[in-house]
Amino acid sequence: MSQNPHENIRIGDLEVGPNAEPYIIAEMSGNHDGSLEKALDIVRMAAQQGAHAIKLQTYTADTITIDVKTDDFKISSGHELWADRYLYDLYEEAHTPWEWHEPIFALAKELGIHAFSSPFDPTAVDFLEQFDVPAYKIASSEIVDLPLIRHAASKGKPIIISTGMASLGEINAAVEAARSVGNDKIVVLACTANYPADPSESNLRGIPVMRDALGTLIGYSDHTMGIGAAVASVALGAVLVEKHVTLSREGGGVDSAFSSEPDELNQLVTQTKVAWQCLGEPRIGARAQEKEGLRFRRSLYVVEDVKAGDTVTSANVRSIRPANGLSPDAFSTLEGRTFTRDAAKGTAVSWDLV
């Protein structure tokens, strides 16, 4: 049975979905720059700034590629961040050593923040199981690896699938792969797999389209600079936002150039929550907190003392605040009629007064 994209699921001890504040994932990636202490500092920073989760990437250079120096394994010369680098060398630099996972996850638990990872092959899934991770994330490039998705989804944890570069058919195949092993706790992430991504390439109007087409919760994996795209994604229905984070963009790390610094992560957490709070309900009309304001709309009042038999004119009846008299539009019907009784200045005009 398909999940209801209008209902929450749970990741660990937290509700995730349209009826919960946006779930914010701080992606460490390779921004630890080869230092375990820096990795732990990133965990501390993410917890301090209010993120709900810290996410790693679990692979080695040998599990994600092979050490071959041909053009097939070389990033294009025009790439903004990693031009002319060989995949093996880049992943050797960027990977998070597997022996670091235990202290990173232990610190996250101590600080009350979720910790999980993107596994890049089945051995990584099996390795991560020992830490009782609350979810698995499938990276954009792995969306076509349906056996990997089935294996991760078979563990029964929520599965988060990033969709950079993918067609709707490829996304649907990945979702169905997860469902085929009985897992329907799925969040599909809208994503532009460019680093950094231009906001104009975000196409966030696709979020409700994906939600309706796939019948899943939708989130947003944000590679733009700043928080504007993330806030907009929540307004369009994203229930989860993932963002790369760093202690300092000038401090190195393979992804630091497009990652959020601590104060930006804090703004991401607070402003996406505000965006979610603003969504409210699909209804039009006065809100409870506007009740006092309704009292001070304009209406027709006697604005100078009048006697019975006096004629109603614009000099003695006007549209003013508050709202206890007849509507301002009624004046054209009242003008020229006579008052039925004396009325003091400040009397609300009613039909029985004329």
What would your notes on this structure say?
With 354 residues, the chain is of the alpha/beta class. The protein has twelve helices and twelve strands. It has two domains: 9-59 and 95-279, TIM Barrel (Alpha-Beta Barrel), CATH 3.20.20; 288-353, Alpha-Beta Complex (Type Iii Antifreeze Protein Isoform Hplc 12), CATH 3.90.1210.10. The protein has helices at residues 36-48, 61-64, 87-94, 101-111, 122-129, 146-153, 168-179, 206-214, 228-235, 262-279, 291-294, 331-334, and strands at 9-11, 14-16, 23-27, 53-58, 114-119, 136-138, 159-162, 186-191, 217-222, 240-244, 299-302, 317-320. The N and C termini lie far apart (67 Å). The mean pLDDT is 93.
